[in-house]
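From the shared-data thread, chain only:
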Amino acid sequence: MGGAELQTTFLARELARRGLRVAHIVYPVQNLQPLEQPAPTLVERSPWQRGHRRLGEIAETAAIWRAFREADADVYVVRGSGGHVPAAAGFCRASSRRFVFSTSSELDFDFKRPDRYRHVLRVYKACIPLADRLVVQTEAQRRLARESVRKPDPVVIPSFAEAPEAASVEGDHFLWANRLVPYKLPERYIELAAALPEARFKMVLGTTDETPDSLMDQVRHSAAEVPNLELLHACPRQELLEDMLRATALVTTSRVEGMPNTFLEAWGRGVPVLSLHVDPDDRIANHGLGSVAGGSMELFTEKAAELWRDPRLREEIGERARRFVLETHRPEAVSERWLELLEDLPR
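Structure, as tokens:
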């Protein structure tokens, strides 16, 4: 699952716990296990319809409308940018339902991004003002929203995160776990591993339809020349979280992010974050939750070496990070903010 999927899962579960009737629209689920009650009702929509087929856009819009009609909700919360937003906005407008758009990244306000079709971006941008509420994760996203779409006035609600168990062992590797797409800059992580041969590095590659074959080939070729780097394919989330507990730090090389779930999951487990570029609302710097290199590979390498050589530093940062998650991102507090927003929607 990606970050947007995880956050909507948290939201659906927590609102159901608070007594709301919640339908969660999902792709077909195989071997579905019974959900612990109270829980949302799952509404299965048809598989993704666009692909490369003729009239795929029309088929996908129809699939979304059928799922929305089956959910029969008073309010529809839609997460993240893409072609699903116009379909959702159109349904809500046609059926007089309330529409809440929730962002997942700064890229949701980049209307010239090269990895999206221009006509889709134009229609998507035009549909955002149709939302009754616009929910963002950070103050940085709020500024971008105000600059680019004007209305509705964005509301900042932190992302959900749990803090189930703190790391109890010394870190024995650095961990990079992300989608393999160009803006995540995976080659920078390989460079970091090569610069610190005394440390161990793991790289978990999540491939998607947006993963260029050339990038995969480049990563495999470069990683083969770095003996202290282990390449791993995407694994079940619980396995990844267990591996995270043993990490010296979670590492990100991405050029742009929203509020990464991996950051929150690492902090909740007492694991520092080492970031080459991104620091949402300066939380890493202001709260001492790890290190940010400002794009400098030299500083990036220096900070990684400090964490590897000083287990006590890792522990101190991890304690601060865990407190931060418990104070700001725990599900009970975040769901309260969502409940207030939903109750305040115009009738």
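Residues 311-328 form the longest helix (18 residues).
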